[in-house]
Amino acid sequence: MSDYLLEMRGITKSFSGVKALDGIDLRVKPGECVGLCGENGAGKSTMMKVLSAVYPFGSWGGQILWERHPLQAHSIRETEAAGIVIIHQELMLIPQLSVAENIFLGREPRTATGLIDFDRMNLDAAKLLADLRMGHINVALPVSHYAGGQQQLIEIAKAMSKKAKLLILDEPTSSLSKSEIEILLRLVRDLKAHGTACVYISHKLEEIQAIADTVTVIRDGRFVSEGPIAQMPIPDIIRMMVGRDMSNLFPREAHPIGDVVFEALGITCLDPENPSRKRVNNVSFALHKGEILGIAGLVGAGRTELVSALFGAYGGQHSGEVRLDGKTLRIRSPKEAVKHGICMVPEDRKLQGIVPGLGVGYNITLSVLDDFTHTGLIDENREFSSIGTAIDRLRIKTASPLLAISNLSGGNQQKAVISKMLEPKPRVLILDEPTRGVDVGAKYEIYKLMFALVKEGMSIIMVSSELPEVMGISDRVLVIGEGELRGDFINDDTLTQERILTAAITPARQAA
């Protein structure tokens, strides 16, 4: 008799005749954490949507055995009733409702008269959070009161309130700080110890190594390998994911760096909700032609606010001067920034980078529609020729340029956003967390693209929370701490992660 809680056998799934899954297997035991690894577009999320009945029985091929019995669910409600609960990469909480209301949404306890029993709901939510070692969270407060990391933990509590036997975590730490990641991993370990099984999907292979018992690797919709994590070192997992050796994840290439082309002088950003607080305080720097300038700092340091102000996208009051080729620019909106040759890939692609229901190709050309317009009409032949070139350049995996971009994996959505911002042929390209939620293969392609662009004379500003990435790619590193510029380092043999972190946490007055 099988000792597996879940067995997925030979799963197939097609979209418009294109196979997204081609005979994939997955097995999970009670209390086991399986790391599911693969590049963007490999089929990981599609596979989990099959399992959780987002794609109902009959729309896919193969067999699912749950507790040794065939599972033929037609809705998420059915899979949740069986004990299979998925936590998506994008949080599914309602900010205005309380923590307790979010946890029991649609399953609220009722009084004898049929009204919601708020007292019981709050007590049940508080007990659940205490059992999960999350008793510090006030269940009566709105979810919006808590930061993203805490909200991710609330999502897990919501899942466990549904009596989850198998918890699916899809990129759960993509927007978490290091300390929040440690809390989440500890929570998963606790769940495993109490018999809850997990499927953990992440591009951060060090997390897979830390939490998974076994690893399943898929590539291009096909099963590649499975095995104990102890027998699958990270380089081997990467090789299986991408189908080639990637011993150097940061393909640093020599390139000429010229004179200063861009300057930011005295940039100051006030907090939109509290104008007496400065999110960015009098930051100045220069950017050279053909240079990759990395911006490092702790979460909340003001990095995103700084680059958003440069791009005319900051939501609060801000001041300072921006110069291109020595000429002062007046940038009051992203449209004006693009017109001046400054483009930006935002940190939150879902909220700021894409139009979800619009086709992949149309998302790419949004920034240059005027180029294809004549007498008020769009020349579709020219537009689609440009779209084809852009898709080929970044190897965006899509069944069709007309497919809604929301159907693409996160990494391919990111490639499309980068393509959109390359269409205007900018002089300065700002990349805010360009590889967040992107697999190692796509990261490598983005890095190669960055070096190709600076060789052509473009200048790049890259914000990243990953210090190895900052040091592996940048020519020079700015360090921001509490809104202040705390370091400007040439990225040579003397620069270390320790120097960057020390600068990030040391106030400028002390550093001086």
UniProtKB/TrEMBL annotation:
Membrane topology recorded in Swiss-Prot or TrEMBL: Peripheral membrane protein
Question: Where is it located?
Answer: Cell membrane
Cited Pfam families: ABC_tran
- Reading the lineage from the top rank, the first entry is Bacteria
Supply the alphabetized keyword list: ATP-binding, Cell inner membrane, Cell membrane, Membrane, Nucleotide-binding, Repeat, Sugar transport, Translocase, Transport
Gene Ontology molecular function, alphabetical: ABC-type D-xylose transporter activity; ATP binding; ATP hydrolysis activity
Q: Which GO terms describe its cellular component?
A: plasma membrane
Q: PROSITE patterns this protein is in?
A: ABC_TRANSPORTER_1 (PS00211), ABC_TRANSPORTER_2 (PS50893)
- Classification via SMART domains: AAA
UniProt-listed NCBIfam families: PRK13549.1, xylG
Q: What is this protein called?
A: D-xylose ABC transporter ATP-binding protein
- Lineage of the source organism? Bacteria, Pseudomonadati, Pseudomonadota, Alphaproteobacteria, Acetobacterales
